[in-house]
Amino acid sequence: SPSDINPTLLDFDLPSQVVAKVAVLAPVAEVLDYAVPDGMALEVGDHVMVPLAHHKVRGVVASVEAAQATHFKLKAVVAKIDDPPVPRASLEFWLWATGWTLTPPGVFLNGCIGALKTPKAQAKQAYVLTGAQPAKLTRARERVMEQAVVSLSLTELSQAAGVSPSVIKGLETEGVMARVEVAAEVFGVPDPQFKTPALNPSQAAADELLRQKQAVGGFCPVLLDGVTGSGKTEVYLESVARTLSRDPKAQVLILLPEIALTQAVMARLKARFGADPVPWHSALTPSQRRKIWEGVASGEVRLVVGARSALFLPYLKLDLIVVDEEHDGSYKQEEGVRYQARDLAVVRAHRDKFMIILASATPSLESLSNAQKGRYEWIRLTERHGTAQLPDIHLIDMKVHPPGKTEMGDPLWLSAPLVAEIEHTLARKEQVLLFLNRRGYAPLVLCRACGERMTAPNTDSWLVEHRATGRLVCHLTGFSMKKPDRCPHCGALDSLAAIGPGVERILEEVRSRFPAARAEIFSSDTTPDAASSEALIKRVQDHDTDILVATQAAAKGHNFLNLTLVGIVDADLGLKGGDLRAAERTFQLLAQATGRAGRAHKAGKALLQTYSPEHPVMQALKAQDREAFYAYEQMTRELAKFPPFGRLAAVIMSSKDQAELNRFSRELALTIPNTDGVEVYGPADAPLSLVRGQWRKRFLVRADRNRDLQGFMAAWLRTVKKPNIIRLVTDIDPYSF
Ligand code: ADP
């Protein structure tokens, strides 16, 4: 307001004015200055409409200052929008993240306030009984009055009673019913004391350490490192409870990989806190998103359980973050704005000085290194809760035990030792999980006549055969087509051959080898929604199925008490990727998948089929010697000065115009600043060099830890004018390259 203006700033020739810096929701590189009209009270975090070029766009106020007017006339804010303001700490974090990810502020904020684009829900009106008696009681009126015991809207009530709305209106006119406003959405209030668990001694020790650290206060990153089933969840839920009870305004965020956000997890939280936690994931409706956004901004929502983007909700007073399965690759967003939610969560806790708990049975190399160096508090849980045992792990050398072929000459995929073990397990009336992280029947379809590999149109990734639906599907672009009878390239009839196995093909082999066993697939194709995956999990728990052939959809979180054998069909699969984290991801995924075997009182066994049993990943899995794997992996990364011993970034350029893309990328290569401790590789074709008709090239940037990577990138990318037909995105800490 004008009274805040510092008089020393005033220039007597020019009037003073109030200027708002606004992050406009448009791809402009900076926050923009706008004049605040007289009489408009604006604060940081307010939503406004501002003029931009010839349009009006939405924006968020990043700062308001009194400034001396200049001869250059600023455009004025058009209007203030009546939406809950973004709390300051959240806004400042978002603006910091725009700089970190090298994203224009408006583009970044667009993701953070996207929920507000849905119009506010109208306050619901309900019809209630006043207690007055109607002059005449018809059968229709009677039905209305029976239904009106719960508050329903006009439409709902007329449907429930099976009468026309005029019957209800008539009752209103007579004063028998009244229209009332129903209160806005109320979120469940978690009760920290609702059901406290009896912790076992190692859990209690971990909890005590967390209590002490939290009592000291301030930024405190913790790696909660414990084998699967050791009870990490119970431990971090106690910290959640403590945070909620010591400050009635504190908010807590539990981040989970999207795939782990199941009914089972929600039910577990409800059992602990007596109220439904507020979820945040991709399946919410737009109006649910808006309500939750508002509830988080007002502080009414105390406990959020969400996937990575929940980090960017507008918390009023965030005081604890838990990142469960912190090593999980799905915390890295690889499309649109690219960010690593776990890493940014640590920054959030650091900025606002609170505790963050990173939980995993197989921590990321980054977090483990931080724990080893003492940057993170390191809490270890080394035993499974109760009497549960770790599984016995064996390697099957596929060079020694090739699975052979069927009588028809089709390849088989299960080796004799694995088949024998499946037989024994079924004979004991126990269950089997066969793990292969590949959806569909075959990852590649190839023409035997001409050698053509089937790909999606204008895309260089292979089409995956899905026999259940008779279609060829591109998992990257979503393209799909009916499997043709003839090769589209050479026209040969019935020449298309399925190469390699997917889960459907393994199921086919399982059914022919074990016709008496009940077998089914557990993948995102067979469990497209929560209801179907809950139903499948229940079938496994009730032992209505004997053999599960599963992708990573089943690798996480479920406790199947009677499942005692895990067979890894192709343990080498993930190692072939060739990127920085291939070995780490393979180790984590297989450690987790083998951890599914044996819970409670039954010992489990895991068999890994591999062509390279001597590989350090396989040896470490077999010996259950995690430290050996991490030591090997750390050494490899340290030699290459790759993360966490260096920093990485990628620049991905794409265009429909291949010639222009090549020209632009060469031009960019010529302007790479010569900086000590920073190397730029490329331009090279991106791993997927053609997607939906867009050609893709990229640079990879490696910098020493102490270099300002973002500063280097910004300075470099500023040097060349980018033609509009080229799209350029930067990826700090890329995961797939
Ligand atoms: P993690 O998160 O480490 O994999 P969980 O917290 O899911 O382990 O615990 C594994 C199983 O042990 C769960 O079924 C859980 O309910 C049970 N459990 C863990 N701690 C306790 C405890 N103190 N008392 C009773 N059951 C527990």
UniProtKB/TrEMBL annotation:
Cofactor: Zn(2+)
Cofactor binding notes: Binds 2 zinc ions per subunit.
Domain of life: Bacteria
Catalytic activity field: ATP + H2O = ADP + phosphate + H(+); Couples ATP hydrolysis with the unwinding of duplex DNA by translocating in the 3'-5' direction
Alphabetical list of CDD domains matching this protein: DEXHc_priA (cd17929), HTH_XRE (cd00093)
SUPFAM superfamilies hit by this protein: P-loop containing nucleoside triphosphate hydrolases (SSF52540)
InterPro entries noted in UniProt: Cro/C1-type_HTH, DEAD/DEAH_box_helicase_dom, Helicase_ATP-bd, Helicase_C-like, P-loop_NTPase, PriA, PriA_3primeBD, PriA_3primeBD_sf
Enzyme class: isomerase
UniProt xrefs under Pfam families: DEAD, Helicase_C, PriA_3primeBD, PriA_C
Domain Helicase ATP-binding span(s) in chain numbering: 213-381
Entry's Gene Ontology molecular function annotations: 3'-5' DNA helicase activity; ATP binding; DNA binding; hydrolase activity; zinc ion binding
UniProt xrefs under NCBIfam families: priA, PRK05580.2-2
Family: Belongs to the helicase family. PriA subfamily.
Purpose: Initiates the restart of stalled replication forks, which reloads the replicative helicase on sites other than the origin of replication. Recognizes and binds to abandoned replication forks and remodels them to uncover a helicase loading site. Promotes assembly of the primosome at these replication forks.
Record PANTHER family: PRIMOSOMAL PROTEIN N (PTHR30580:SF0)
Protein name stated in the entry: Replication restart protein PriA
Species of the source: Asticcacaulis endophyticus
Lineage: Bacteria, Pseudomonadati, Pseudomonadota, Alphaproteobacteria, Caulobacterales
